[in-house]
Amino acid sequence: MPLLQKVRRLTFAAALMMPISGAASPQADVESTPEKEAMAAEAFQAGQALYENGEYLEAAHEFEKAYHLAPHPSVLANIGYCYNKIGDYPKAVEAFQKYLEHPNPDKTKRNEKIENYLEEIKSKVGKLRVNCLPARCEVVVDGRSHGMAPTSIVLRAGAHAVDIEPLNGGQKRQFNVDVPRGGELVLDVDLPVSKPSPLKNTTSAQDAQEDSVGRINGETHLGAPFWVATGTTV
Fold it and tell me: Could you give the CA distance from residue 139 to residue 130 in angstroms, rounded to a whole number?
């Protein structure tokens, strides 16, 4: 092995011992090559420099690159710290949870610290569960696609714009929802299989574009012509 590759591999291993996250056992089932580890080392070191400079989003991207090239649980902790710094709590929760799936049993205090971080961050997020009929509906939250319904999404607690886009060519619908801290908001959307005939539509175009909100038996109901949607906090 060339000397340079040896140095880079040692540097990457040493970097994983740095205070941001500490070391943990690498995943044994991930294939690694000297080239990948060299690239991962460069990305990791770039992430460290960006983190120390306060550029947390850019640092997260470099750590994610390093993890993709040479997966190591400690890098996940670094990713979690970065996203926590910029307030992207859902991604921080995801990274910390994945880290704790392969914690270092010899680093109990460090693992407890990560667990405490995770519990603290969980109080800042909530879940949005979306069910849609027909099922072939894409769920877009704040302009970002989250795949097809049904789906459960971890979001920062508070207000979000949810677009339900039927793949059958039906009209897209939008909801303004408020995701509760530490709770779950359930959004059940019932859309027609095909567009209604304009001749049978007695509702004005303006009404057809606007959502209405009402209270039924203590639950929040969102409604509009030709479809029904209910949101309940669990």
Answer: 8
**Type of residue found at 116:** N
Structure tokens at 199: 């001749």
Helix (H) or strand (E) holding 138: strand 137-141
d(CA 91, CA 100) in angstroms, rounded, equals 14
DSSP 52: H
In whole angstroms, give the CA distance from residue 67 to residue 29. 14
3-state secondary structure of 47: helix
pLDDT tens for 102-161 read 877 777 888 898 999 899 998 899 999 999 887 689 999 999 999 999 999 999 999 999
Round to whole Å and give the CA distance between 183 and 107.
Answer: 31
CA dist 165 and 169 (Å) reads 8
CA pair distance 114, 14, nearest whole angstrom:
20
Residue 106 is given by DSSP the state T
State the Cα–Cα distance between residues 129 and 175, nearest whole angstrom: 13
Q: Which residues contact 194 (CB under 8 A, 6 or more apart)?
A: 168, 170
**Which DSSP category does 146 fall into?**
E
pTM score = 0.64
- Residue 137: what are its φ and ψ, rounded to 5°? -125, 135
Report the length, in residues, of the chain: 234
Both structure tokens of 135: 């099922």
Residue with tokens 């420099």: 49
> For the chain, what percentages of helix, strand and coil (3-state, to nearest 5) are there?
40, 30, 30
